[in-house]
Design brief:
By secondary structure, the chain is an alpha/beta fold. The chain has 18 helices and 17 strands. The protein has a domain at about 320-525: Rossmann fold (3-Layer(aba) Sandwich). Helices cover about 40% and strands about 20% of the residues. It has a 6-stranded mixed β-sheet, sandwiched between helices. A 5-stranded parallel β-sheet has the order 14-15-16-12-17, sandwiched between helices. Strands 2-1-4 form a 3-stranded antiparallel β-sheet, with no helix packed on it. α3 (about 90-105) packs antiparallel against α4. Residues about 275-285 have low confidence and may be disordered.
Length: about 525
């Protein structure tokens, strides 16, 4: 068990946590949620001991081992992949090295033999004989076959290193597992494998993720950072959000009698618990839900941006035709004779194992990159807005404040209109006068959405729109694209985003890009 006692931390003059008392118990996976800047990653670092708290203490059960997903991709460059995974259990790894060192001695003595026997006994107790095979199973599950075992980490690509570090974190059945954004850069199969692993994991997990589908799939509890406090609620992210919205609605409706409120709340909980009862990890959830009262339900200070795209005119029948598109970059053929057509009403997700493939395609159809061969034809009634993966060129050198910056792209130049739209994107008051060169990654993304909102485009092209966003902003852009009446071409790693927005799948890695699936979930079922 992992617990905190009156933990407090002030960082950069901002009070992140004050008197946090929380218990993380075995058999539960806790989704740690909170707005950007609320301190999710910082709290994980407190739990792991990477940074020191200013007040309070953190304790774990006697003899329990904590494992943490490392973020430094270069820390193990001089180790092999197999060694890196085994170092997830540092005590076992050191014992293995000590044992090997004795056997390698040229003048092996009786005393060495006795010491080796002691180490062998300890090694067996730590399940050491199965360690390498367990490590290989974890790597294989994440898509790294046996050929990777003896490679040095420095030979691997960044996405491959992330998989190795994830295998390291979960190696050896740790008692407490801390995961900060474990699904970042994972492909579909690796993400599904991780979900299944965590569903079967019987110890304690605390995870930070912006992937709503992942949180809903694996979490039995939600730990919400708000008001400088951390409060746990039974249930996954969807249950937290729906119950929060319901509780706020009930509180705001003063005309309802208390018993009517209680009846509605109980009915909601009954519906949820009926669906959640299948979860093997949440055997106590029904009892916890039954005990919930209105005063226990979450109320949040979070603000959701409002993202709404309105086409200035409806597009005609012809949207986009791509024929024989090819492109070679640095000697590598990225696109090879690609042909497809986008029809009116399509909201198409483009999939490829290599993100350079999708980004190159988007740059070409947006007119920012010339193909080596082939043709891109837009319908004469189409108007486009483009969201690139790298948006830095739009904000450099930062000579504009946000009001003047958005004026560059808006037909309506009046300040009340500009400020009103910025307010919808959570840039209200003095924030509207921020210089563009001081914006965070998430703030830049919201500015790009504002730019697209004033465009009146009937075709939106978005390359990775959920990157750098908190859950509230991801939900807002998700809802905005579902409402949008025009065409959408997009890439994303967010499962729920893909499932709810896309009505067409284009797989750029397939022999034929046309996929016979009407939804993202159906596509995954076929693969």
């Amino acid at each position: 068990m992992l617990s905190t006692n009156n933990v407090s931390l002030t960082f950069g003059g901002q009070k992140l946590f004050e008197d946090v008392n929380i218990k993380f118990t075995p058999g539960n996976c806790y989704g740690l949620i909170g707005a950007n800047g609320s301190g999710k990653s910082t709290f994980l670092k407190l739990l792991s001991g990477e940074i020191e708290m200013q007040k309070g203490n953190i304790s774990i059960g006697p003899g329990e081992r904590m494992s943490v997903l490392k973020q430094d991709q270069f820390a193990y460059d001089e180790f092999t992949v197999l060694e890196t995974v085994l170092k997830g259990n540092e005590a076992l790894f050191k014992l293995m090295k000590a044992k090997d060192a004795i056997y390698m001695k040229p003048d092996f003595s009786d005393e060495d033999g006795m010491k080796a026997a002691e180490l062998e006994s300890e090694f067996a107790e730590m399940n050491g004989w199965e360690a390498e095979s367990e490590a290989m199973v974890l790597l294989a599950g994440l898509g790294l076959n046996a050929d990777y075992a003896d490679k040095n980490m420095k030979e691997l690509k960044g996405s491959e290193k992330i998989k190795v570090l994830l295998a390291q974190a979960i190696f050896g059945n740790p008692d407490i597992l801390l995961l900060d954004e474990p699904t970042n850069h994972l492909d579909i199969k690796a993400k599904d494998w991780l979900e299944q692993f965590l569903l079967k994991f019987t110890n304690t997990v605390v995870v930070v993720s912006h992937d709503r589908h992942f949180l809903n799939k694996v979490c039995t509890q939600t730990a919400d950072i708000d008001y400088g406090k951390i409060t746990t609620y039974a249930g996954n992210y969807d249950f937290w959000r729906q119950s929060s919205e319901l509780a706020q609605s009930l509180r705001n409706n003063q005309n309802k009698k208390a018993e009517e409120k209680a009846k509605e709340l109980k009915a909601f909980i009954a519906r949820f618990s009926a669906n959640a009862s299948k979860s093997k990890q949440a055997t106590s959830r029904q009892k916890q839900l039954d005990k919930l009262e209105l005063g226990d339900m979450p109320v949040s200070t979070r603000k959701y941006p409002y993202i709404h795209f309105e086409p200035a005119r409806e597009a005609g029948k012809d949207i986009l035709t791509v024929e024989g598109l090819s492109k070679t970059i640095e000697g590598k053929k990225v696109l090879d004779n690609l042909t497809f057509t986008i029809n009116r009403g399509d909201k198409a997700i483009f999939l490829a194992d290599n993100e350079q493939v999708t980004s190159t395609l988007f740059k070409i159809i947006a007119g920012e990159l010339e193909p080596d061969a082939g043709e891109v034809r837009w319908g004469i009634t189409t108007s486009t807005a483009y969201f690139p993966k790298d948006n830095s060129e739009y904000f450099d050198p930062g000579k504009y404040n946000l009001i003047d910056w958005l004026r560059l792209y808006s037909e309506d130049q009046h300040e009340p209109y500009i400020r009103g739209l910025l307010g919808q994107l959570l840039f209200s008051g003095e924030d509207a006068f921020k210089k563009t060169n001081v914006l965070s990654g998430g703030e830049r993304v919201r500015c790009m959405f504002a730019k697209m909102m004033v465009s009146g485009a009937n075709v939106l092209m978005l390359d990775g729109p959920t990157n750098h966003l908190d859950l509230e902003s991801i939900t807002a852009i998700n809802d905005g694209l579902v409402r949008y009446k025009g065409n959408v071409l997009f890439t994303s790693h967010d499962h729920e985003f893909n499932q709810t927005v896309a009505n067409r799948i284009i797989d750029l890695d397939a022999k034929s890009v046309e996929v016979n699936a009407s939804s993202y979930d159906e596509y995954l079922g076929l693969h």
